[in-house]
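Input (structure):
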């Protein structure tokens, strides 16, 4: 396709799988359900006509915590992230070093590639998000500087393994970027996060950076957000300082899309692509292909065609137990994105 179109990552798990996870079914039962979920998700993803697919994150505990699976040096008492509707998610807290991932994203990619001939994209979590698991009062014998060095190495390894495994793109999920401006309106924390993630990206060549991307959104869990009230205009100038080729930007659910597009136009750099969200994942109404096309034509007035791509606003279920959207709705929305992008191409490249 002349306008590239890519998903973000997650697809809702089936009700049977969610029940098995939340009721802690036996390991055998879970393994069988996971295997079936990957097969079924890849098949349904292919049927949407999507030129690039993912495994739907069917076996990830969440987009943020998969590297922590199996670790024993954690407690559950970490930072809380509050959503608009009153619910919250809590990060674990590290109790000792050295910090090593329990699990690398390459595992998910390899499992998916075995069952599809389409290009597979892989999402990974940011170094900045995992930096939040280090306790504010420190760890005796494991200073923060040592933790940060370990973390950057592990995040680099997570990306590098996916590239070596042949990922079509590796996308860093950076949902805490916009949130950081809520916690620290001065922007100091945001600048710190950008610097941390660039310390990872700068370990890759310019060619490799063209295969790397960053996804940002105001959070998406149980159809609620954590930082939609933060102005994109305050966030995007710093975001485009990240040394990657691709930006996957929630946009469909923004109340004033044109305002955001003007900021993108002003700050997007040469060599960077903006994949704009044309599907509102928090809204149960399925977009028509015409609506999607209109959103792309609107964006094309501000972003040059060689820098424009389309995506969904977010994953459809970043946390494994979120069943607020059905699989049928998610795949119908993805199909609308593909068809709408095709319609826009017909007009823009006529
Ligand atoms: Zn998101």
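Output (sequence):
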């Amino acid at each position: 396709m002349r306008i590239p179109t890519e998903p973000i990552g997650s697809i809702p798990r089936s009700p049977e799988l969610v029940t098995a996870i939340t009721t802690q079914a036996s390991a055998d039962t879970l393994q069988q359900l996971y295997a079936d979920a990957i097969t079924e998700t890849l098949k349904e993803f292919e049927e949407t006509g999507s030129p690039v697919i993912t495994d739907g994150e069917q076996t990830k505990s969440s987009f943020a915590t998969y590297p922590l699976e199996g670790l024993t040096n954690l407690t559950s008492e970490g930072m809380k992230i509050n959503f608009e509707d009153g619910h919250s998610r809590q990060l674990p807290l590290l109790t000792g070093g050295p910090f090593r991932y329990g699990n690398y994203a390459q595992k998910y990619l390899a499992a998916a590639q075995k069952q599809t001939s389409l290009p597979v994209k892989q999402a990974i979590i940011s170094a900045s998000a995992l930096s939040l698991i280090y306790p504010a009062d420190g760890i005796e014998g494991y200073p923060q500087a040592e933790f940060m060095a370990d973390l950057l190495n592990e995040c680099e390894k997570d990306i590098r393994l996916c590239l070596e495994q042949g990922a079509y793109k590796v996308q860093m999920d950076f949902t805490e970027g916009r949130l950081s401006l809520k916690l620290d309106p001065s922007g100091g924390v945001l600048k710190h996060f950008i610097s941390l993630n660039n310390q990872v990206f700068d370990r890759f060549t310019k060619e490799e950076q063209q295969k790397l991307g960053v996804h940002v959104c105001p959070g998406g869990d149980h159809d609620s957000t954590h930082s939609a009230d933060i102005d994109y205009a305050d966030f995007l100038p710093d975001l485009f300082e990240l040394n990657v080729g691709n930006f996957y930007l929630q946009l469909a659910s923004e109340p004033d899309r044109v305002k955001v597009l003007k900021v993108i136009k002003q700050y997007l750099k040469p060599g960077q692509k903006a994949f704009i969200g044309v599907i509102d994942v928090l809204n149960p109404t399925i977009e028509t292909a015409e609506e999607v096309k209109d959103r792309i034509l609107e964006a094309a007035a501000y972003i040059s065609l060689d820098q424009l791509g389309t995506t969904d606003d977010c994953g459809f279920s970043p946390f494994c137990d979120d069943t607020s959207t059905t699989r049928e709705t998610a795949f119908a929305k993805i199909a609308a994105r593909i068809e709408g992008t095709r319609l826009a191409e017909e007009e823009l490249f006529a």
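Notes: The first strand starts at residue 74 and ends at 75. DSSP finds twelve helices and ten strands in the chain.
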